[in-house]
């Protein structure tokens, strides 16, 4: 499996293996093991907390539900839980806007530019099935390169 296949599947289905918005945190840790605990999302509150499995970052609320999902793609390689992607889980990064748009089109996943996150040296697109957001950095004089892909939260606030 290639990283574009993984991201396109996430954009189409809203999930990566046992990970989806509203998933029970215990189901995720049973499937993937213990994550790296990045810490709280706020200095004032203990929850939600941010956890990571390589470049897969998950926000987990106080009631132990996944509330936000993102895949960091700005590094040289993208690391994801091997059991979620059916292989080693390490992929080359550097995906361009054209690569992502073409992969989404090939998968029949509708998308459109996303104006609220398009400004300055970045642009963004959003998919219709899951609301997945792909945000790209635009290096000067170069084609936009994927920086992060995320699945939006559902507004849950326990």
Description:
- The chain is an alpha+beta fold and 158 residues long.
- The protein has one domain (3-151).
- It contains 4 helices and 12 strands.
- The chain has helices spanning 3-13, 25-32, 82-85, 97-106; strands spanning 15-16, 19-20, 36-40, 49-53, 56-60, 66-72, 77-79, 90-92, 111-113, 122-127, 133-137, 145-151.
- The strands form 3 sheets. The protein has an 8-stranded antiparallel β-sheet with strand order 3-4-5-6-12-11-10-9, covered by helices on one side.
- β4 (49-53) and β5 form a beta hairpin.
- It is globular and about 45 Å long.
Sheet having the most strands: 8 strands, antiparallel
What does the overall shape look like?
globular
Helix-strand makeup class: alpha+beta
Number of helices: 4
Number of strands: 12
Q: Tell me, rounded to a whole number, the average pLDDT.
A: 91
Q: What string, H for helix and E for strand, traces the elements in order?
A: HEEHEEEEEHEHEEEE
Portion in strands = 25-35%
Regions with pLDDT < 50 over 5+ consecutive residues?
none
Portion of residues within helices: 10-25%
Give the number of domains: 1
**Gap between N and C termini, in Å?**
36 Å
Strand order across the largest sheet: 3-4-5-6-12-11-10-9
Report the oligomer. single chain
Cα Rg: 15 Å
Brief summary:
The protein has 158 residues and is of the alpha+beta class. The protein has helices at 3-13, 25-32, 82-85, 97-106, and strands at 15-16, 19-20, 36-40, 49-53, 56-60, 66-72, 77-79, 90-92, 111-113, 122-127, 133-137, 145-151.
Layout of strands and helices, then pairs:
Blueprint: H1 3-13, E1 15-16, E2 19-20, H2 25-32, E3 36-40, E4 49-53, E5 56-60, E6 66-72, E7 77-79, H3 82-85, E8 90-92, H4 97-106, E9 111-113, E10 122-127, E11 133-137, E12 145-151
Antiparallel strand pairs: 1-2, 3-4, 4-5, 5-6, 6-12, 7-8, 9-10, 10-11, 11-12
Helix pairs in contact: 1-4
